[in-house]
């Protein structure tokens, strides 16, 4: 659960869009649901890559709400960096699609702020983003309540991360040349796997 309090509101613009991630999941085709339910993704809590704020975690692409049991997509263009089990190219295509998909108007609500208003939402089933269409000051205070660990929709297949399939031993110079040249998010995934030792899928 998160709460926002609008202290300084621009006269025009700065609305927030909230997405219903359960509805976005429900509208996918059955084959796409099945594929997404078998995957995990690397999330980075600092979308700007600030030095010293590198907080990463691997979560299922489809999670189950801890109370209702409903399934929801669990991806965000701001925080989801890489599908663990897919190649660089496959991950980019799928994440681009999912991030565009959840922002479709049919799944979203647009909230027009006024000063001193408060909004709160369930992070397990919604995502949000601000419309960057304002040039005046905008000051919001946020409180996030500690939540649960995202649980997968079903037992996840024990696929090895795609990075283990590249040439050379994991973490070696040869492996770095053959894998990490793909981009920053691949390097982030490699760093996460190094720091956490043997890779383990989230389990029910």
From TrEMBL:
<dbReference type="InterPro" id="IPR051323">
    <property type="entry name" value="AtsK-like"/>
</dbReference>
<keyword id="KW-0560">Oxidoreductase</keyword>
<dbReference type="Pfam" id="PF02668">
    <property type="entry name" value="TauD"/>
</dbReference>
<comment type="similarity">
    <text>Belongs to the TfdA dioxygenase family.</text>
</comment>
<dbReference type="GO" id="GO:0046872">
    <property type="term" value="F:metal ion binding"/>
</dbReference>
<keyword id="KW-0223">Dioxygenase</keyword>
<feature type="domain" description="TauD/TfdA-like">
    <location>
        <begin position="2"/>
        <end position="144"/>
    </location>
</feature>
<dbReference type="InterPro" id="IPR042098">
    <property type="entry name" value="TauD-like_sf"/>
</dbReference>
<dbReference type="GO" id="GO:0006790">
    <property type="term" value="P:sulfur compound metabolic process"/>
</dbReference>
<protein>
    <recommendedName>
        <fullName>TauD/TfdA-like domain-containing protein</fullName>
    </recommendedName>
</protein>
<keyword id="KW-0479">Metal-binding</keyword>
<dbReference type="GO" id="GO:0005737">
    <property type="term" value="C:cytoplasm"/>
</dbReference>
<dbReference type="InterPro" id="IPR003819">
    <property type="entry name" value="TauD/TfdA-like"/>
</dbReference>
<dbReference type="GO" id="GO:0016706">
    <property type="term" value="F:2-oxoglutarate-dependent dioxygenase activity"/>
</dbReference>
<keyword id="KW-0408">Iron</keyword>
């Amino acid at each position: 659960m998160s709460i926002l309090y609008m202290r300084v509101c621009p006269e025009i613009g700065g609305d927030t869009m909230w997405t219903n991630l359960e509805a976005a999941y429900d509208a996918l085709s059955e084959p796409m649901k099945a594929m997404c339910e078998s995957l995990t993704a690397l999330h980075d809590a600092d979308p700007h890559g600030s030095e010293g704020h590198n907080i990463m975690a691997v979560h299922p692409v489809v999670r189950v709400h801890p109370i209702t049991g409903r399934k929801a997509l669990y991806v965000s263009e701001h925080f989801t960096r890489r599908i663990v089990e897919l190649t660089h190219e496959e991950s980019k295509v799928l994440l681009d699609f999912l991030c565009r998909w959840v922002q479709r108007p049919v799944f979203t609500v647009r909230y027009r702020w006024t000063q001193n208003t408060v909004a709160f939402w369930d992070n397990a089933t919604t995502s949000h983003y601000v419309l960057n269409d304002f040039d005046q000051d905008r000051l919001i205070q946020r409180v996030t309540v500690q939540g649960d660990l995202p649980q997968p929709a079903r037992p996840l297949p024990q696929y090895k991360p795609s990075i283990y399939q590249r040439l050379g031993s994991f973490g070696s110079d040869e492996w770095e040349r053959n894998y990490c040249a793909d981009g920053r998010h691949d390097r982030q995934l490699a760093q996460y796997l190094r720091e956490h030792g043997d890779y383990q899928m989230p389990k029910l």
